[in-house]
Amino acid sequence: MHDEFLCHVTAYGTCGGQRVGVPLGTYRAPTLALALWWLRDRAVWMADRLDPQPENPRFPRGALVPVSDTAPDVPKALRTWARDVGHQEQVAYELAAGRLVQIAVSDESTEYELLAESVDALRMQRTVPALVVPVA
Q1: Considering only CA atoms, which of 75, 4, 17, 90 is closest in space to residue 42?
Q2: What do you get for the CA distance between the two ends of the chain, in Å?
Q3: What single-letter DSSP state applies at residue 51?
Q4: CB 35 within 8 A of CB 7
Q5: What does 99-111 look like in DSSP terms, one character per residue?
Q6: CA angle, corner 19, sides to 14 and 25, nearest 5?
Q7: What is the pLDDT along the chain (136 residues), one digit of tens a residue?
Q8: Which residues make Cβ contacts (< 8 Å) with residue 78, sequence separation at least 6?
Q9: Could you tell me where the beta strands, DSSP code E, fall in the chain?
């Protein structure tokens, strides 16, 4: 069982013709349960910022406008993922097995990525090349 997990949230877009990643948060989770909680929480956090409620008094009247019906609904996809127990179980299984997990959703201009990996698996990967390098 892997005990610690490194979790990241990143937004990727294009600037000056190059793909650019903007870190939105990192968390070193001491348990699998906390890693899953953080990923779900960040998914909802991003969704709430991408799809704020128009009646929120922080926004002046007319500041928010609806997007077209054909635009990808990234906030809905993030909220759906965060509530899907089956997906959460699959993510838990993959992380517990030491595999990297990536959840990515995109709209016309940006890709939003949630990433988690076992700290133990990362440490083991670093040692593998040293174990297979022949000594002359």
Answers
A1: 75
A2: 36
A3: S
A4: yes
A5: --EEEEEE-SS-E
A6: 95
A7: 568 999 999 999 999 999 999 999 999 999 999 999 999 999 999 999 998 877 778 888 878 777 788 888 999 999 999 999 999 999 999 999 888 999 999 998 999 999 999 987 655 555 545 444 444 4
A8: 43, 44, 46, 47, 50, 105, 112
A9: 5-15, 18-29, 101-106, 111-118
Q: What's the burial of 18, exposed, middle or buried (CB within 10 Å: 0-12/13-18/19+)?
A: exposed
User: Rounded distance, CA 80 to CA 115, Å?
Assistant: 17
Half-sphere exposure of 27 (CA within 13 A, CB side): 21
